[in-house]
Amino acid sequence: MKKTIPDFEKMKQAGEKISMLTAYDYPSAQLVEKAGIDTILVGDSLGMVVLGYDSTVPVTMEEMLHHTKAVRRGATKTFVVADMPFMSYASLDLALMNAGRLIKEGGADAVKLEGGINLVPIVQALTRAGIPVVGHIGLTPQTANQLGGFKVQGRDLESAKQLVKDGQALEQAGVFLIVLEAIPSQVAGQITTELTIPSIGIGAGLDCDGQVLVFHDILGLFERFKPKFVKQYALLGQEAVQAIQEFHKEVKSSQFPAEEHTFALSDGVIQQLYGDK
After folding, report:
1. What pLDDT is recorded for position 271?
2. How far apart are CA 19 and CA 8, in angstroms?
3. By C-alpha distance, which of 110, 141, 98 is closest to 42?
4. Which residues pair with 135 in a beta bridge?
5. pLDDT for residue 205
6. Are residues 259 and 220 in the same domain?
7. One domain for residues 138 and 83
8. Do 264 and 136 fall within a single domain?
9. 254: enclosing H helix or E strand
10. pLDDT tens digit string along 41-89?
11. Which of 39, 102, 142, 233 is the most buried (most CB within 10 A)?
């Protein structure tokens, strides 16, 4: 049964951890749902993982809609959160229009925005419109250049305090879940304690109410780089290369296709086709 927002709240209260994993297409969404993950994130990380961009910045609304629709078709019984891409919520009007599309056209159950106190008016407007919102603070990939690159955030007293304030402001504005990315575990633990909404960590330690990772990372399918916080549970990329190499070898040596992979005509049809030749 699909989780609901009250379910996530009850999980935090009960101390039950929340599992979140990205999915970007129909087959991966099917696998994630079959595995029993609590919630799927259609992350704009798809720009780097499946579209080959250098960052998440080039990802468009049309690309997010395309992938969100595919994920929803593959995971009909799982709560789906869709990322709003860079500049899609630069104003109240844009935010309402684009978030509405991800819910109405894409089939998402909620949208996720990157940013802190500065996003309060947008979060308030979206929640007033009936659109569930997930927050995202710490390392925010869409604005990584302003943060000095893909670096851990909140390592000094001032920035750590600011992250706590950001989390509190977003909760008060109406987010029902918040992602904490690449921040010290002690800071994430403090935020998690301060807030009544669940926190989902990615590189933020064990004290968060849940954890999220990228589908391709945990399966060893993305090899461009491996963040410190990623645990690879399989090395399917290597297995895939080996399988493809074996296919290549069998094609070259005429081992594939074998008889069991081949269709044939009946003797009667063959005789009619070729006659007495």
Report:
1. 87
2. 10
3. 110
4. 178
5. 97
6. no
7. yes
8. no
9. none
10. 999 999 999 999 999 999 999 999 999 999 999 999 999 999 999 999 9
11. 102
| Same-domain check for residues 141 and 217 | yes
Identify the pLDDT of residue 211.
Answer: 98
E strands in 195-267: 199-202, 210-213
Residue that is written with structure tokens 């399917």 in the block: 236
Identify whether residues 39 and 139 lie together within a single domain.
yes
Amino acid 275: pLDDT:
75
* Residues belonging to the chain: 277
In the residue annotation, 114 being an active-site residue is answered as no
Is this structure's pTM higher than 0.90?
A: yes
Q: Are residues 252 and 224 in the same domain?
A: no
Do 229 and 264 have their domain in common?
no
Q: Are residues 148 and 248 in the same domain?
A: no
Rounded alpha-carbon distances, angstroms, from residue 180 to 52, 130, 199: 25, 24, 7
**Residue among 212, 253, 255, 219 at smallest CA distance from 236:** 219
The Cα 249–Cα 157 span in angstroms is 59
Residue-number span of the structural domain to which 14 is assigned: 5-234
Q: What pLDDT score does 151 carry?
A: 82
Q: Which residues of the chain register pLDDT less than 50? A: none
Q: What angle do CA 112, 182, 70 make, to 5 degrees?
A: 35
CA distance 171 to 160: 17
Calculate Rg over the CA atoms of the chain: 23
Using DSSP, state whether 228 is helix, strand or coil. coil
DSSP 106-162: T--SEEE--BSGGGHHHHHHHHHTT--EEEEEES-GGGTTTTTSS-----SHHHHHH
Which residue among 158, 181, 250, 260 is the active-site one? 181
The CA-atom distances, in angstroms, between 3 and each of 112, 133, 231 are 17, 15, 25
- CATH number for the domain spanning 209: value is 3.20.20.60
**How many domains does one find in the chain?**
2
